[in-house]
TrEMBL record:
The lineage of its organism: Bacteria, Pseudomonadati, Pseudomonadota, Betaproteobacteria, Burkholderiales. InterPro entries: BamC_C, NlpB/DapX. It comes from Acidovorax bellezanensis. The gene is bamC. It holds the Pfam family Lipoprotein_18. This is Outer membrane protein assembly factor BamC.
Length: 352
C-alpha cells in the first residue's frame, strides 16, 4: 500500500478510443513552434543496431544511479528521469504480445515494423477524461461522437535487443490539444502539448501485466521508480561552425536518452548503428511543408503528396563522462544548415 501511494497517476482513468475512424490527426512539422512539433517520413529497412548489440545494457555514469525493480524475468529500470522495461526474453518472442497489448487497449497501429523494432499507435482520445454527468450517461452511448476531450495521444514503442539475449522496451508519449484561436471561441487549432511521463510509466506497468506479472506486482514495481533526481541538462554549442548538443553524460546513457528524445519529438528512425553512435532519420523542413500546402490544410486529411524528406544522421560521440550530439548529412559530413540548427534545438529542449 505504501508503494502504491507513491504513484500520483490514476490508472483507472484510461479508456482510449482510436481516432482512425474519424479524420486522422497529423503533427505539424515546424520545429520552431514547440519541441514536440515534428514530422518525419516513415522509412523501412533492417536495423543494423540489432546485429551490433544496439540494446546493450547501459552503465550509468557516476552520479546517475540506475534504479532497478525485478519480478521474475521482467524488471523496470530508471536512470535520471527516464524509465524503461528489461525482459529476459528475445525481441522476436515479445513483438506479438506487445502488439496485442496496444490493440487490446483501444489503439490502432500506424507503424508496425518488427525489423526496425518500432510500433506506433494512431492518434487516440482518452475517453475516460470526459465528464460523466447525467446527460453524458444518458446520451453518450448514442451520440458518442458529440463529446470530445480536445486532446489526442500517440504512443511509440521501441524494442532494443540486449547483448545478454534479453530486450529493452521503451514507451514514449506525444500529445496534441485543441485550443481556441479567437476570444469569441469560434475557431480552433491543434497544438502540441508536453509529453506525459507518468502516462508512459502507467502503460509500461500495464505492459508488465500483459507479460505475466500480477496487478499488485506491477504497481509495486512502477511505484518504486517514480521519484527520480533531475537528469543532467543539455546545452547548445558549436563545433567547427556546426551546431551540437553537449551532455555531461557518458555514451551509454546519452545514447539511450537521445533515442528517447527522438521518439518523443516525433522523429522516425529508419536505422540505427550503436557501434558508430548513429541514428538515421528523415526530415521534412517547415519551408518544404509550407510549399506543399501547409499543415493546417492537411490536419484532418491524408490527401496530397508530402514534401520529399531529407536524410540526416544524428551522431552521439562519448568522451568519458561527456557526450556530443551532432547532425550529419546522409554522407556523414557535419551539417551547418538551418535544419541542423532546428534539430539540435529540439533535441536540447527535450534533453534538458
Amino acid at each position: 500500500m505504501a508503494l502504491s501511494a507513491c504513484s500520483t497517476f490514476e490508472s483507472d482513468k484510461i479508456d482510449y478510443k482510436s481516432a482512425t475512424k474519424a479524420p486522422t490527426l497529423e503533427v505539424p512539422p515546424d520545429l520552431n513552434q514547440l519541441t514536440r512539433d515534428t514530422r518525419y517520413a516513415v522509412p523501412g529497412g533492417v536495423v543494423s543496431a540489432n546485429a551490433l548489440q544496439a540494446g546493450q545494457a547501459a552503465q550509468a555514469p557516476t552520479g546517475a544511479q540506475t534504479v532497478v525493480n525485478t519480478v521474475g524475468d521482467v524488471r523496470i529500470e530508471r536512470s535520471g528521469g527516464e524509465r524503461w522495461l528489461v525482459i529476459q526474453r528475445p525481441a522476436d518472442k515479445l513483438w506479438d504480445p506487445v502488439r496485442e497489448f496496444w490493440l487490446e487497449n483501444g489503439f490502432v497501429l500506424v507503424q508496425d515494423d518488427a525489423k526496425l523494432g518500432i510500433m506506433e499507435t494512431d492518434w487516440a482520445e482518452n475517453r475516460a477524461k470526459l465528464p460523466q454527468d447525467v446527460i453524458r450517461s444518458a446520451l453518450g452511448k448514442v451520440f458518442d461522437s458529440l463529446y470530445s476531450t480536445g486532446e489526442r495521444d500517440k504512443f511509440r514503442t521501441r524494442l532494443e535487443r540486449r547483448a545478454d539475449g534479453g530486450t529493452e522496451i521503451y514507451v514514449t508519449h506525444r500529445g496534441m490539444q485543441e485550443v481556441y484561436t479567437t476570444k469569441e471561441k469560434d475557431g480552433t487549432v491543434w497544438q502540441p502539448r508536453a509529453a506525459d511521463h507518468e502516462l508512459e510509466t502507467e502503460f509500461m506497468r500495464r505492459m508488465m501485466v500483459k507479460l505475466g506479472l500480477s496487478q499488485e506486482q506491477s504497481k509495486a514495481a512502477a511505484a518504486s521508480v517514480q521519484a527520480a533526481p533531475p537528469a543532467p541538462s543539455a546545452r547548445l554549442d558549436t563545433l567547427n561552425n556546426a551546431p551540437v548538443v553537449l551532455l555531461d553524460e557518458g555514451f551509454d546513457r546519452a545514447w539511450r536518452r537521445v533515442g528517447l528524445a527522438l521518439d518523443r519529438t516525433g522523429f522516425t528512425v529508419e536505422d540505427r548503428d550503436r557501434s558508430r553512435g548513429i541514428y538515421y532519420v528523415r526530415y521534412v523542413s517547415p519551408e518544404a511543408q509550407k510549399a506543399s500546402g501547409g499543415f493546417l490544410n492537411k490536419l484532418f486529411s491524408k490527401s496530397g503528396e508530402a514534401s520529399a524528406p531529407v536524410k540526416y544522421q544524428i551522431q552521439v560521440r562519448g568522451e568519458g563522462e561527456r557526450s556530443t550530439i551532432s547532425v550529419l548529412t546522409s554522407a556523414g559530413v557535419p551539417e551547418t544548415s538551418t535544419n541542423a540548427q532546428r534539430i539540435t534545438r529540439v533535441l536540447t529542449d527535450d534533453l534538458k
